[in-house]
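anyone seen this seq b4? input:
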Amino acid sequence: MHIQRTGIVLSPNKKRVVLRPFQPPTDDRILRVIARVSTLAERDVDALLNQVYEEFHGRHQKPKAFFEQRFLSIRHHLLTDAPLSENRRLLLGAYFTQEYALESAALFNPSLVWHPDQSNLANGERRFAMSLRAVGEGHISSIVFRSGTIGKDQEIRIDDPVRFVTTPQFVPDSRYENDLFRRKLIELGLGTTFIFEVLASLETVFTLEQLENRLNISLREHRSQHDELVPLVEQVVMLAKSNYEIQYSPDHELSERVIFPYSPTETNGIEDARFVRFCEEDGRCTYYATYSAYDGKMVLPQLLETADFLQFKMHTLNGPAVANKGMALFPRKINGHYVMLGRQDGEHLFLMYSDLLYFWYTKEMIVKPTNPWEFVQMGNCGSPIETKAGWLVLTHGVGPMRKYCIGAMLLDLEDPSKIIARLQEPLITPNENEREGYVPNVVYTCGALVHENQLVIPYAMSDYATTFATVDLNELLSAMT
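predicted toks r here
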């Protein structure tokens, strides 16, 4: 079987920086910074602010708006309501702002889907959207994007990323379905009488602000249990904040967009998004991505939803079958059910069915490590790809010296618990150019595509950079036994 390595390499770019809040560790430190800025004469404020603009010119879009928002976030620390000049407000905002190099350490674990915009293309050409895991200072992971095209001749062209990276607008009135939220609370063991009373007082659909207001009112109404109830209230709010929305406008290029950790469960990173274009029976299609939220202690599987890569909704996944990493959703329902692959025990590959996209209760082990190159563990490398022969699933296997390889197997279209065929040897194993990196001896992907009967595989090289390979689909299927 002939694997064609393209030679394309996407390396981390330390020049791609984004504005992020800078928050000193204590309120006392914040107050002292504010006090020092307050001692400056107005002409010194103007000069310092101009210096900031000159030094960081061309590195960010709309820094003034960001500084203003940062000032608003620390304004409650001011000792008086005395009005401040616009430049002093902006300078204070700049003192509580920092640059963050999103991909200074690594750019890896890619996932490919067909782009929602397929206009203005040559015959036989298709446009793709690619997500990547970007890692910067503190090993914090975020999701970044690239776009490109695959020609009829299988030539892969990557669009040059824009110089800027822009943070999204958070949707302030993100809405929650009361019944769905109740189910999640029960699943997490937070379904107490107190919480049910709170939910009963809310509408069928409510906002985070309405939830927090109602919780605070109920806390006051239960003063005698205040200390006992506060931890419960904090957990409920944390759950709500783990389900949120962010939004970009069409004038933001795809490569300008980033999904940076926002919720309490994501504080240390958003890892390994597996994107899939999911289509309903009526033809409506939505992009979903399973990803791992990491708070520094625990990994939680989550689900991203978007129709256009402009507005993204993040949801928690729930149920006893939701565990570990590496969830991958099938691109359509099978026999009326949602279906997902997962690696609940960190070692074997499981199949899961559900009638509810956000709740998964059953699991069935379908694949065990069988070949020497996967004896340590195995899992999926992205969502299954539908072919006439069956569901094509790229897998990963871990062997001696913790070397990761990419494999493949074929599942029955109507009953994916049945394995039709499987590669006995790796499809891709790290070569000498790919084995050096942040984590040596690893090749890994989070999602491939088929174009003109060629399987196009983007994959990470040792958790550092990303490249591409292609293989003839028929040749791959014939190599399976």
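The first strand starts at residue 4 and ends at 10. Residues 178 and 342 are 28 Å apart (CA to CA). kinda curious what u guys think
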